[in-house]
Amino acid sequence: MALTLRDSVEKLAGVGKKRAELYAKLSITTIGELLLHFPREYLDLSHPIPIEETQPGEVYVVRATVMRKQGEQRIRKGLSIFRVFVSDDSGAMTVTIFNSAYQFAMLEEGETYLFYGKMDGTFLKKEMRSPQIFSDAQSSQMYPVYPLTQGITNKQVQSHMREALHVWGDCLSDKLPEGVRREYGLCQFRYALETIHFPPDSHALAVARERLIFEELLTLSLSMHLLRQKNRVQTSVSVSDVSLALFLESLPFSLTNGQMTAIRESLADMQGDVPMNRLCQGDVGCGKTMVAAALAYVCAKNGLQTAVMAPTQILAEQHARTFEKILAPLGISCGLLTGSMGAAARRDQKERLASGEIQVIAGTHALLQEEVSFHALGLVVTDEQHRFGVSQRAALCAKGNHPHLLVMSATPIPRTLALLIYGDLDISQIAELPGGRKPIKTTVIPSKQRRRALSFVREQIRAGRQAYIVCPLIDENETLALSSVKQYVESLAESPLADVKIGLLHGKLKPKEKDALMQSFASGETNVLVSTTVVEVGVDVPNATVMMIENAERFGLSQLHQLRGRVGRGAFESYCILVSDNQSEETKARLDVMKRESNGFVIAREDLRLRGPGDFFGSRQHGLPKLRIANLVNDTSLLHKAQDCAKQILAKDPPLSSDEHRGLRKSVQRMFLQSGQTTLN
C-alpha cells in the first residue's frame, strides 16, 4: 500500500498503541501532523561558556571534560544519585544525575561533552543538576526542543521525526505556486520542513521559518478574505437616511469626532444592499454605546428592531438603562431580557418583542433562545465580542433576514490583527476619549504595603469618594494561594477600613443580590466594593476613584486595563494600585507596562506579544484558528506580504479552483473547519 501523510504514527518504529495515545495528547495522530509539530525553541550549542564565567541561577552550555566519576548513591527507595566531576581550562564543576544509571554509564573519563542546564551551587563550588548532555561533535548544531507530554521525550520525538522525513519525505508536496515562491524569495516546502526540525545553522533556520510562516499567514489571509465574501449576502433591511439632529440635540454631551466617524461609517454600510458587518473598537470609556444608540435610533425610525447582546447580566441591565434613558424620550420603546427574570416578565417581553412593540431590546444569551422571535430585526449589537463565539453571533443574526451587525469591543487590538481575528468585519476605531478624562495614576506594591494602601483608600473615602478592591477567587484555594474574596472582606474588619461600609460582589450571587449591591454602590451608600472580575465590564460609577487589584500577576494586561477603566470616569483624580509579590522578570515587565501606559491599543499589543492571541482572548472564542508557527504580533512584516499575496491570488482566481492553487484551497478548507466554519463555498 502506498505511503501517505495520513498514515498513523503507529507506523513509525517504536511507536505502538500506547505511545500513539501519548502523541494524541499533542494532537498528533498522523505522520503529517507529526511533521507539522514544530520545535518551540532551539538550544544553540555553538557558544559554550567557560565554567569560571558562569553565575548561579542562570542557564548555560558548558564544554567540559570528565575528570572523575563517583559511583551510585542511594538516598532513599526510588532515588539514586550519580556524580560526575568535570572541568575546562577555567575551572571545575559537579554534574549531578538523578536515577539514570544509563546516562551515567555513557559518560567516559577523559572525554569532552557539552552540558546544558541551570548552574547551581556557589561561586566556589559550582554544580549542574540533571543537565542535558551532548557529544562534543554536536557543538556546531542547533538542538530542537519540542512541546512534550509526559511519557514522550525530546530524543524520541527527534528520532521519530528523522524517520518520518526519511520514509515519508517524498509524500510532501509544495502548496505554494512556484511564481509566489520566486516573487517572495521563499525556499521549497520539503527543504523548509527538514531544516526546521534539523537546522544546520541559524541562517538556514531563518530561511525555513520565513517560508513556513509565510505559507501559514497566506492561508489565514486567504481564509479570512473568502469568509468575508461568503458573508456578503443580500439583505432586505437596508435603511433609508434619517436625520440624527433630534438624537444629537437630546444628548447632554457632544459626541467625539471618533464617535461621529464610526456612526457615519456604520450608516453608510446600513444603506447598502448587503448587511453591515462592522467592529467598533476603542479604549475603555470611549463611548461605543453611543454609537450603538445612534444606529438603534435610525433603525427604529425605519421600523426595524435592534437587539443588544451582552455577556453578563450586569452589563445587559446597564445597556437597558442607558438605551431607555436616551431613546425613550424620543418615543422609542426599550426592553430587557435575561435568564434570571421571572417567567411572567420574560413571557411579556417576548410577546412585545414578537409584535414589534419593543423596538430596542438588551439582553444576555437569553436572546438566543429558540422561542425568542422578532417582528423586524434590523440590527444586532454584540458587546465585549471576545466573550462570544462566532456561532452565537450568527445565531442571533439568524432571527432576522440578514440584519446588520455591530460588534463592540473595549479590548482594542492592532488594526492588522483585528482584520484577521474579525476577518468578516469592517473596522471603526474610536481613538480618543470623551473630554474631561484624567490619566489614572498607577502604582505596583508588594503585599507588605497593603495596610498603607488601605489607609490611602480610607483618605479617599473621607474625601467623599469610593473604591473597588478586586480579588481573583471567591473561595480559598490553597494550591494557588490566592486571596479569597470572602476571607479578604473579613480581614478588612481589622484594617483602616474597619468602619466603612463594604459590599461583596461575585459571580455566585443571585442576580437580585448583585443588582442590589451595585445599586447600593452606585448610589454611594456602599463605600468600598470588594469584587471578583465581574466589575470588569458594565459598572459605571463616576464617584469611584481607586481600583486596588490583589494578585495582579494573575490577570492579563488587557484585563487589568479593563479593571482600571472602572475608575477615572468622573471629574476626580483616580488611582490604580496593583498588589503583587511575584518577583519574576516576566511579571515585573508586564506590570511595568501598566505603570507607564494608558493607551489600550499599546497595552493590548504588549498583552498579545507576551501571551499570544489564544490566551489573550481566553478560551479561543474568537474563531481564529490556532497557528503552528506564525506569531501575529512578531511576524507583522510577513503578515503584510502574505495579505498582499492573498489579494493578488484572489484577484486572478477568486474560488482558488486552478491547478496551481489546489493545494492552497485544501489548506484554506482545513483552516475553515478549524475556525468553526463548515465550508469554503
From TrEMBL:
Annotated function: Plays a critical role in recombination and DNA repair. Helps process Holliday junction intermediates to mature products by catalyzing branch migration. Has replication fork regression activity, unwinds stalled or blocked replication forks to make a HJ that can be resolved. Has a DNA unwinding activity characteristic of a DNA helicase with 3'-5' polarity.
Say yes or no: keyword Isomerase present. yes
SUPFAM superfamilies reported in the protein's UniProt record? Nucleic acid-binding proteins, P-loop containing nucleoside triphosphate hydrolases
Q: Name the family.
A: Belongs to the helicase family. RecG subfamily.
EC annotation from Swiss-Prot or TrEMBL: 5.6.2.4
Q: Which GO terms describe its biological process?
A: DNA recombination; DNA repair
Give the signal peptide range. Answer: none
Which keywords does this chain's UniProt record carry?
ATP-binding, DNA damage, DNA recombination, DNA repair, DNA-binding, Helicase, Hydrolase, Isomerase, Nucleotide-binding
Q: Which residues form the Helicase ATP-binding domain?
A: 269-430
- What NCBIfam families is this protein classified in? PRK10917.1-3 (NF008165), PRK10917.2-2 (NF008168), recG (TIGR00643)
The record, for Gene3D superfamilies, names: Nucleic acid-binding proteins (2.40.50.140), P-loop containing nucleotide triphosphate hydrolases (3.40.50.300)
Pfam families for the chain: DEAD, Helicase_C, RecG_dom3_C, RecG_wedge
Tell me where in this chain the Helicase C-terminal domain is found.
449-609
Name recorded for this polypeptide: ATP-dependent DNA helicase RecG
What is a single molecular function from GO for this protein?
A: hydrolase activity
